[in-house]
Amino acid sequence: MTVVVLVLVGLGVLAVIGIVVGVTDAAQSRAWRRVAAERRRNWEARQAVTSRPVDSWGDEDSD
């Protein structure tokens, strides 16, 4: 009987953690989208300045 209670408590804790993470993520999503949009604009501005096209793998070492 105590094993069943322990499993149910564990599942309850996991459910609470999932809810907290979901609510926190939903609250921060607008800020993360704003950061991503700003980074994209900065990246596009840097690409417009360069005369040659740069692919997204340009920071990799290619010997």
Written account of the structure:
It is a single chain. It is built from 1 helix and no strands. It has one helix spanning 2-49. It is elongated and about 70 Å long. Residues 44-63 are annotated as: Disordered.
Structural class: mainly alpha
Rg for CA atoms: 23 Å
Q: Which strand-content bin applies to the residues?
A: under 5%
Number of separate helices:
1
State the gist of this model.
This protein is mainly α.
Question: Which helices and strands, and how do they pair?
Answer:
Elements: H1 2-49
Region (Disordered): 44-63
Highlighted features:
mainly alpha
